[in-house]
Specification:
By secondary structure, the chain is α/β, with parallel strands linked by helices. It contains three helices and seven strands, in the order αββββαβαββ. Helix content is 28%, strand content 17%.
């Protein structure tokens, strides 16, 4: 009549023990919760703010080509670093890397996104854009953060 203690009949048990499966699923959930924020795509830069930048959902894809310019001396294509030198060799290499990533995509998705920090000189951004155009791609997106409405203007902006 109630619950049996042990295996008195000696036969197979017809109940599934789900406790190990639940333990494994909880561990996987915790691992995913910890790792997901660390999977940020690309290099972190302090983006300039704009009043009404258009949001493009293609930039969030894992296959998108994002060129990050954190300072005047270096450029990152996704996570690959390139040094900006006086001879322009680093920018030529960057252009080749962009070409390699974009040429296999359909023409509609051949967009290079440029994320530049606020402190980067305008000339450096122009050099990077020129290198992308020399690689044969004219669809270039400049990334900015949307300015918060009602907030006072930031100093130096």
């Amino acid at each position: 009549m109630g619950m049996s203690a042990g295996n008195e009949g000696g036969g197979p048990v017809a109940e599934i023990n789900v406790t190990p499966m639940v333990d494994v699923m909880l561990v996987l959930l915790i691992i995913m919760m910890i790792i997901t924020p660390l999977l940020q795509a690309g290099v972190t830069v302090t983006l300039p703010e704009g009043k009404n930048p258009d949001e493009d959902q293609l930039i969030n894809k894992e296959t998108s080509v994002v060129i990050a310019i954190p300072n005047d001396d270096s450029v990152y294509v996704n996570k690959d670093p390139f040094i900006i030198d006086d001879r322009g060799e680093g920018l030529k290499d960057m252009g080749k890397a962009v070409d390699k990533m974009l040429k296999s995509k359909p023409e509609k998705e051949q967009i290079a996104y440029v994320k530049s920090s606020k402190d980067v000189s305008y000339g450096t951004v122009v050099k990077v854009i020129d290198a992308i155009r020399e690689a044969g791609y004219d669809r270039i997106g400049l990334v900015a953060e949307k300015a918060k409405t009602g907030a006072p203007p930031k100093p130096g902006a």
